[in-house]
Amino acid sequence: MLLTFLLLVLVVGIFGLIIIPSNQKLIMRQYALSITSLVFVFSLFLWLGFDQSTSKFQYVVDWLWLPASNINLVLGVDGISLFFVILTTLIFPLCLLASWSFDKGDVKTYLISFLSMELVLILVFTNLDLLFFYIFFEAVLIPMFLVIGIYGSRQRKIRAAYMFFLYTLFGSLFMLIGVIYIYLFSGSTNFESLSTVGFSFYDQKWLWLAFFASFAAKVPMLPVHIWLPEAHVEAPTAGSVILAGILLKLGSYGFLRFSLGLFPEASVYFTPFIFSLSLLGVVYTSLTAIRQTDLKRLIAYTSVAHMNLVMIGLFTGTVIGVEAAILQSLSHGFVSSALFLIIGVLYDRWHSRVVKYYGGLTHTMPVFIIIFLFFTMANLGLPGTSSFVGEFLLLVSAFEANTTACFFAATSMILGGGYSLWLFNRIAYGNIKIVGVDLNFREFTVFLPLVLGTLFMGIYPNVFFSVMHAAVSNLVWSDLWM
Amino acid sequence: MKFALIFQNDTAAFLPEMFLAIAILVVLLHGSFLGVTAASLYTYLTPSMIRLTSATLFLSLLLVLNNPVESQTLWNAMFITDHLSTWAKFIILIGLLFCVSVSEAYMFSARFRAYEFFVFILGIALSLCLLISSYDLLSIYLSMEFLSLIFYVLACWKKNSYFSAEAGLKYFILGSVASIFFLFGASLIYFALGTTNLGSLALLTENLTTSSPFIYFGLICLVSALLFKLGAAPYHMWIADVYEGAPTLVSLIFAVVPKVAFFAVVLRLSFTSFWSLFPTLWEDFFCVCGLTSLFIGCLCGLGETKIKRLLAFSSVGHVGFLCLGLASGSVEGVQGVLFYLVIYMLTAAFLWIYILHLDLTSDSSLLTFADAIGLVRSNPFLGLGVVLMIFSLAGIPPFGGFFAKFNIFIGLVDSSFYIVAIFAVFTSVISAFYYIRLIKIFYFEKNRNWFFFAPLNKGGSIVLVLCGLIILFFMLSPNLFYLLAYKIGLSLMF
Fold first, then answer.
1. pLDDT in tens, A165-191
2. Chosen from A140, A146, A150, A189 to mutate, greatest number of chain B CBs within 10 A
3. Cis preceding linkage at B478, omega within 30
4. What is the residue-wise DSSP string for A204-239?
5. What's the structural domain count of chain B?
6. What's the domain range around B392?
7. For residue B393, which of A436, A472, A477, B150 sits 20 to 30 Å off, Cα-Cα?
């Protein structure tokens, strides 16, 4: 019931935005902000009423779609997806607040794209049906493509929009064939039924590869990661935040739910492959990040590095590893979003993302620099922040799985220090190259929940782990996996 | 044929066709008596013609739906009524209703001073209804020729345009060659089996043990001719030039209406009559045609800068998908094909009506990308609709086009055509590029010139809203389409 209500509020929001006249920009923005905040508050009720002792799906909603073909739309939340939903509903109001003064182009299309993205994302994370997961997984492409293409800042946005769209579409169509094969083989696309189906090892390998093609582009893993720096740089601030904060989690969520859940033997078989790609990704993109001259591109490369670290944790096959991967995803959702919002603050003032032009900001924007420092430290994994918890536990589980992998993954912390500290030093300290006005109240409100969330996850993560525990244990220790 | 039952079965089932035939004569007389002077032709005559034609099509639609005869062969087994014929006639009459409702604005703007156009529309309706109900190779040929003659005339209608004349001539010559091949194939089959009736052919080829080269070669000629009319590769050469050269309203009719009928005929041939030849002939034949069409559709579309030709090549690609659906040879395949046809018809109607609107608001009829820049500024709602429709055409969820492709893929994977499915995936991604390039042109590019709000004509907007609502909100209630397509597939095969 609660899930239906969440989605209904968003649909009402989109409809209301359509009927508000296009020139009433302030009213539209206030309306969109109130709708997304309302959705966030309702999603907290999901957590409030969540039963931590069971790994079964809760708040299940079942709508008949094609009863003759046994495909129905089933929505539900369990320990794994609960926090992704809350992350989604938290990031969207912050994005809308951050883009309050964004006036390039049509505000109505902007807000409608964002609200429909939120609708589709909540549907993706709560979906228990394979076909509908695929449908909404792909449907996210449409509003994001429009946001990047219409509201991007320079001509390269078109190239970025094409790359974003085509990389994801290419992999996803292979996943479609996999979904169809699963449906025809087992007669159902419902995830709960599918988790009892045993695929043969040969089938599992091919299906795993089909799903890999789709999720690897989203994570993004190494050969198909090029779209990410392009899309992040060319998108508007709020678009980058959504991309980094939520859309990247779709890949790791997909791996977790479907590759690990449905094809456990193939996952074990392909673990060395994933480890190699992820480690290459971590080291290579961290080193590339150090070389960047564009603020957003630097943070984009660090996003790739963090998500590849998450992939290592997912495929270790331990409860600690998977839980840490989920926590690291959530933490990355907070930290990366905050970093892009920080860059957005700078871009709003001076319309430039070149690192060379910024320096000595701490003298005139101290509050901003404090927040920037906090998130820089969170980016490199300072103890006390959520990202330390995630990275440390990921390294613990990687050590259990493969000590060489752990050694190379640990270099991520060192390289992380490299790019984060150097970037922060160049911008905050040094000669005063630029003077500016400090954060206003709206921008401060945008950062406050992110700071509090990062600290909360870093200081007392058990609140999060205890929710995930039942579902993750069920996944890792299911009879299929062993 | 039982003469005693001629009024009970044959005439009763043929009421739509008879009504259309009489209506053609009545409309022709109405036009020639009232259209005395050229000046009065389109002030008095066109609105009344449109209303007459719409009323005729609507009434024949009601006649089709209320067919008292169920699943019988008629007129000495030359024709048949079954679920496929009822349903396909319904779709075609709706498609023609769409075309007629759009034609008012086009007639006024392009100064089409010819009431015969509406007589031709009714002639198309009659010939397609006959084609769909045909159950004999000869009646298929006759209906096909009837249709083709009307199409040849319509294609070269614009007398002051070289492109139109070229289109008509190319279509005429190539179409005649195709019809010759049809006759040749039919004669070979008659030679091999001694009958041209599809029902008798089904009984005779049921347990075919020897592979007769006459049957194979005859069938290949026959179905090649039918695929030519559809625009499948390797018989696709005429499509780009004809779609571009013909007046846009006529291109709309070409793109939207005949595909259902020809696919109905191909379905009858491959699934009912020569079903036993499926593993040896049809699978390979339709796979090759389908893959070639996909290949041609995606590659040639990449190089096109003129919108009408782009849509022509995209239709080649879609016919490729439909051929692949036929290749799978199961009920799911037939279901996928029928379903895809409906979705494609609605999407094509939407996009071609938009092209018509562009044609009316721009100077030349040869629409390049430059004519479409900045659509979103001049008409935001229409722009959003067109963009979402293009996403549906590319096969992006959650719109109707995705479900159509999904069904075809189900048919393919069900028959274990994995490599074919992977190839279809590749071509889908490549063709997705030129679809999103269109969206880029509409939405992302800056318009250098002044733009004015260009309202859409009333008939067009009604059709666009209907098609748009069905395709965009398809996901909310797909049950009707799926079950109907499945029922028709079952009736065809068993």
1. 999 999 899 999 999 999 999 988 888
2. A146
3. no
4. HHHHHHHHHHHHHHHTT-GGG-THHHHHHHHS-HHH
5. 1
6. 3-493
7. B150
